[in-house]
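FORM 7B: Structural annotation worksheet

SECTION A. Query
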Amino acid sequence: MSSPWFNVPFLYCRFRMLVSHSVRVKKEHGVSTHDAQVVIAGAFRLRAGHSVLGPYFFNDSAVFRVQGRCVDAWFHAQPGFRQDVKTTMLISGVTTPNTVSLSIHPERDHQVVFKTGADGREPIVAMQVHEVRKIASTNLNNTEQEHSVKEFRVVFAMGEWKIPETPGELRFDGTSGKSMDSIDCCRLTCERPEISGVLRLTPGIPAFRIVDDSVEQNPIPNCRIRVRGPDRQEQEFETDAQGEVFIPRTGDEVYTLLGVVQDELPLAGALLGEWTVESMPDLP
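SECTION B. Predicted structure
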């Protein structure tokens, strides 16, 4: 079946997943708590790989930036005895490359399947796990600590998402289609993450581009900057893999770069004067 989407060579994707919830469960002789605060973000280009089955876009080396932590704790207490266990999981880094894909099915009223790990490689990042176990009783007082490194996976898929037949900008969230996600440090009964993002036919104009001071003007990815908006409020943004920061604008709003908060360059490259800021023109 024909579709105008066959004529689209690229899609530019910006993706964000926010995990934010706290759970407290009271039991007969104790309490268990669970707190998760994790942000997952990615920006990449999907190129066309159309087939007879329908329009298809993919990026076989997409990565996500993950930052946050999960904390699980529980205690059990009875007369003369108490046991406490606290597990802290810290995630900070960039996932392994994986294939992110978007498949369009014209014969199904242009329903879309959008997912990570399309080639079987799930994007993972190292997760530092620290566990503390305490036991206190009449004749025993003991504390044990254990540290390990585990994997944090970013699993996401959205199906039954209907898009217009005419190509254009596509914005999506948790209500756009039937989504499936898996957060390693969370429970099946936990509140689901907030999903948001956009797919554009063109890359758009970044508000700022952060580069080093070399002749090549190499981009500085995952660089956190502080910006003052038109309402005089200050916000922090993080550059993508191309060192760019996109800020949605609806008019002629002016954003002012106040400074770099943190970058991921080696120490020698992070010294004052080793980076420059290139301001991009506002959208017409």
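SECTION C. Observations
Confidence is low (pLDDT under 50) at residues 266-275. DSSP finds no helices and 18 strands in the chain.

SECTION D. Sign-off
Analyst initials: ____
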